[in-house]
Amino acid sequence: MIAQIYGKVVEKNENSLILDVNGVSYQVFVPKTVLNRVEENLDKDRNLRLVTYHYQSLEPGRSTPILIGFLNSIEREFFENFITVSGIGPKAAVKALIKPISHIAKAIDEANIDLLKLLPGIGERKAREIVAKLQGKVGKFGLIQDREITEEKEDLKEEALQVLLQLQYKRSEAKEMIEKALKRRLDIKTTEELLNEMYREKKIATS
Q1: Alpha carbon 168 to chain centroid distance?
Q2: Which of 101, 130, 147, 175 has most Cβ atoms within 10 angstroms of its Cβ?
Q3: Per-position DSSP letters for the chain, written without gaps between them
């Protein structure tokens, strides 16, 4: 049983990562809500540690080992609870978890069928089954301090990062500057606004 994996992220796909672990590349499937927070959890060498759920995908004539990655054991525990619902297997759960786990846990606890129906592959009937199975059992997951990061914000951060790298900033320094700017100004919506905020802060620091 593979419980954790640590390696360099060499490829990022729609629902998976490729990690290089001492020259061996592993594909790790990752829910969207986790994938959105990968960049901020990389070290300076782009290494990442993931807690994993390891299982065998059984198909006619073969058995394929599958790894599903999370940033911590609490996220994995929620996933393990989620797949106890009849008809939701590991692959379906990976596709469904596009919103922060704390939001999903709250929706389950409050029987918010409308929100649960927004999850890919979860219709009204399945949403009601999730509530019936897990309501009252997922309270602690609502305490997770995760947040919803839109694709637009991720694109903005990536564009700003590429500009700073071209300006000869180190990747770790550039990422720190971006995160600090976004924390100072929550209303930033464009790359230009983000770069201007970083320049303004740098100007103040050197004046």
Answers
A1: 28
A2: 130
A3: ---EEEEEEEEE-SSEEEEEETTEEEEEE--HHHHTTSGGG--TT-EEEEEEEEEEEEETTEEEEEEEEESSHHHHHHHHHHTTSTT--HHHHHHH--S-HHHHHHHHHTT-HHHHTTSTT--HHHHHHHHHHHTTS-GGGGG-------HHHHHHHHHHHHHHHHTT--HHHHHHHHHHHHHH-TT--SHHHHHHHHHHHHHHHH-
Asked if residue 93 lies in contact with residue 76, where contact means CB atoms within 8 angstroms, the answer is: no
* Side chain identity at residue 51, one-letter code: V
pLDDT (tens digit per residue) in 79-88: 999 999 999 9
